[in-house]
Specification:
Elements: H1 2-16, E1 20-23, E2 44-47, H2 50-61, H3 66-80, E3 90-97, E4 102-108, H4 130-134, H5 145-155, H6 161-174, H7 180-188, H8 190-193, H9 197-203, H10 219-231, H11 234-237, H12 239-251, H13 258-262, E5 267-269, E6 272-276, E7 279-283, H14 290-301, H15 311-332, H16 343-346, H17 349-357, E8 383-388, E9 394-400, E10 409-411, E11 416-418, E12 458-461, E13 465-469, H18 476-489, H19 494-499, E14 503-504, E15 512-514, H20 521-529, E16 534-536, E17 544-549, E18 554-559, H21 561-564
Parallel strand pairs: 15-16
Antiparallel strand pairs: 1-2, 2-8, 3-4, 3-9, 4-5, 6-7, 7-12, 8-9, 10-11, 12-13, 13-17, 14-15, 17-18
Bound molecules: 6-diazenyl-5-OXO-L-norleucine.
Amino acid sequence: MKVALRWHVLLIGFVLTTGAAFAADNPTPSTKTAPLALRPGHAGIASANALATQAGFEVLAKGGNAFDAAIAVASTLSVVEPESSGIGGGFMATMHVASGNRDVFIDARETAPAAVNPKDYLNPDGTPNRDTALKGPFSAGIPGEPAGLVWLAKHYGKLPLADSLAPAIRTARDGFKPDNRLLGSIEDEQKNLQRWPASAAKFLPNGKVPAAGDIWRDPDQAHTLQLLAQYGNAGFYSGKTAKKIVDAVHAAGGNWTLKDMSSYSVKERLPITLDYRGYKIITAPPPSSGGVAIAEILNILSGFDLTKVDQVHRVHLVIESMRRAFRDHNDYLGDPDFVKMPLNMLLSPYYADGLRQTILPDKATPSSMLAPSSGEDPGMHTTHFSIIDADGNMVAITATVNYVLGSTFVADGTGVLLNDEMDDFALVPNKPNVYGLLGSKANAPEPGKRMLSSMSPSIVIGPDRTAVIGSPGGSTIITQVLEGILAFIDGGDAHDVAAHKRFHHQYMPDVVMTEPGTFDASTSEALTKMGYTLKQREPWGFMNVVIWDRRTNKVDAASDPRRADGLGKVQ
Ligand code: DON
């Protein structure tokens, strides 16, 4: 009974207000003087799609925990939100395991195939070939998501993998109504999808973009998920699925081998943890640059009391900290299994002390004064979801196929849309990727190497409230999560954190990106006088946040109002 009621509320919540965030009603009476709660007793899930959030609750109702629910949410997103993430892509998970009070990080990031060759990303005249970097089989890394889901079930879940994958398999087999955002993405990428017959067959049934309200089925993906459910890794990385994927890549001119598939492995890593003003931040380590950058920024900011400075100076200090952290991002970071990174230095408070000294009190520091290192629309094609279960297990997962509809290349007979994550490598030295990020040797492509990511799934444990937070948005992920953490620390609830107005600076280009309404006229004027170039863009991000208030024992979940109200308005 309870479960049926939950879904009902979830769906009403979705239609009326946000996207797919829902926290079950608090069954515990709250009192202000009660001791802090040790377990929430109820769950919250915030994802980019109502069907995915519902899949997560379905699995919780079967007796699963947050990790089983994460499998259900991620695999359902692969079916209903393929423009953003899927089993042809990868994910990063920052998790808190309540029993044992452990924080873990799961790296299910894609890897470069053994035959990777930087020349494949150059035109004959030596200029960057943006097509091979972003479309078709050369743009894809070996998928990590299927192995990540298997890993979650095996090491952290309570249910068999097949139970957690069941909602996605059912949705793919029986069909669903694509939302306007998916239809808009297919429309935008129509020409690319037509380049490969299996892509056109999947996304353009009868040669056309599906109409709003049509039921859309994906029987090939249902079958591929079924094999994964039955055989685990062997069901995807070897056997029929692997062979079909490798054959399809070859038929399209690509260079994957069966060995590339069978040698893929998930990496479990220690997350980055730091203390900022009494809040424990648990976030993503390399091969994400996100956690390092967030830590560096917060370490710099911890030398200022942001509550005691006016708005203009607060923004100034935050931008200058972003600028310095992104400079280091470009220079030092890559796959930890391939490159030595000065993490002790980058994460050290003493290093932050030094950087803080270089911030001028009332003036922007031109990036050109700091050292060398470019911009494009951040796009919104990646997804983040946050889960807290009744026992206090927490999962923050950012999952991606990279740019809209990834490589737009579907491997024939599998329903698997491959990612275009290879563009997250520094494919051509000193040339920007699609997010304007530059990279160095540390992030050069090499066989088996993971490309650097900005994904920053994070958990923030404060004195009396806990937040699970993250967002898509390319390089802006880092600054969105940073600003979300600051809004949470300032006392914001889940809606405040997701709705918080954003600004972004990534060292190069030396501009502060803002959305409409980020700054009022006088703040903009003051910042311009300090030397900042402000550039307004369409709103970006799709933050999904769950917050557990341990004083009242309430769980609160919210989806980014920029998207949830306006699904389909692709910006
Ligand atoms: O891993 C990364 O940093 C990127 N592939 C994420 C891409 C992304 O967020 C796209 N759009 N919002």
